Amino acid sequence: MITNNLPYAKDGVKSNEPSLNTTNLYRRPEKCESTETVLFNKKMTNLIYCPITATGKYVIPGTVTTIGIEAFSRCKGLSSIIMPSSIKSIGCLAFENCIGLTSIMIPQSVEEIGYRVFSNCIGLRSIYVQMESPLNFTEDSEIFYRVDKNVCVLYVPQGTKRKYQRADQWKEFKNIVEMKSNFLASSNN
Q1: Residue 183 pLDDT
Q2: CATH number, domain containing residue 15
Q3: CB under 8 Å to 89, separation ≥6 — which residues?
Q4: 31 belongs to a structural domain
Q5: Does a structural domain hold residue 4?
Q6: Backbone φ and ψ of 128, nearest 5°
């Protein structure tokens, strides 16, 4: 159980209140490549916080269904994040300012992505999306704020390129590439 002063975590959700509800935060021996400890709720369904000093590739455990608000925010040393097919929700600003992030895979199971999730991910070069239909980002024009959409390649399932070329925010990517479904499935491992 964690009782130290990790930033703004309370009841599994970040807030502006620095107090902690220590009964709901648990340290798990899950490590990033830099051996930093990642915080989850007791049931390991909500990824709450990844230390900003984390580096390298991080594979989110298969029990996680929710990535919390600002969970990876300012993790400048992370280069790649792989989400399991259990992820349903990604909180607002979850990957904001992950400037070292070059690659991310979004599974088909994702139903909701919060505001400005990838804002200031200036190093992002590839996004692998497994969703057959693009999520609607009509109300969030800054979901990919400062991502270089001329350089970053958006990989989508075979037969879906036209859908992504017409969808708000997704259509801003100049390089949308269809991938065979077996490639996208194997990138989740």
Answers
A1: 55
A2: 3.80.10
A3: 65, 66, 67, 110, 111, 112, 113, 114
A4: yes
A5: no
A6: -105, 115
Backbone angles phi, psi at 185, to 5 degrees: -65, -40
**pTM beyond 0.85:** no
Domain-located, residue 89: yes
E strands, the chain, where? Answer: 9-10, 13-14, 26-31, 37-40, 46-49, 55-59, 66-67, 77-82, 89-90, 103-106, 112-113, 126-129, 153-157, 175-179
Q: What is the pLDDT of residue 84?
A: 96
Judge contact between 179 and 173, C-beta under 8 A. no
The domain containing residue 85 runs over which residues? Answer: 9-186
Residue with tokens 């230390």: 51
Q: Please give the tally of structural domains in the chain.
A: 1
- Quick one: tokens of 121? 């991910």
The sign of the CA dihedral 64, 37, 8, 10 is positive
More confident residue, 59 or 30: 59
Is residue 167 a contact partner of residue 144, using CB atoms and an 8 Å limit?
no
Burial of 17 (0-12, 13-18, 19+ CB in 10 A): exposed
In a domain, 106, yes or no: yes
Question: Which range is least confidently modeled, 21-35, 63-77, 84-98, 139-153?
Answer: 21-35
